[in-house]
Hints:
- With about 60 residues, this protein is mainly β.
- It has a domain at about 20-55.
- Helix content is about 0%, strand content about 25%.
- It has strands spanning about 20-25, 30-35, 40, 45, 50-55.
- The chain has a 5-stranded antiparallel beta sheet, with no helix packed on it.
- Strand 2 and strand 3 form a beta hairpin.
- It is elongated.
- It holds the Pfam family DUF5999.
- InterPro entries: DUF5999 (IPR046041).
Amino acid sequence: MCQHQPACPTSDSADRDAARLVAHHPEQGWSLLCNGVLLFEDTGELLPDGQIIAPHRVGLTMTVA
C-alpha cells in the first residue's frame, strides 16, 4: 500500500501512528494514514481490519492541598 521510502510502518506495528497522512479532516475530527489507519482527534483509532483501538488518554491525578 505504501509507496514512501522508507516505507511507513504497517497498521499492525507498534509505531503505526508514525505513518504519513493521506487525508486530514480536522473539522470532522479524523485523519487517514498511509497504512490505512484512521486516527481520531480523541486518540482513538480504527485499523484497516476493523479493529478498534480505544483512546489512549493520560489519566488525571488530583491532589488535595
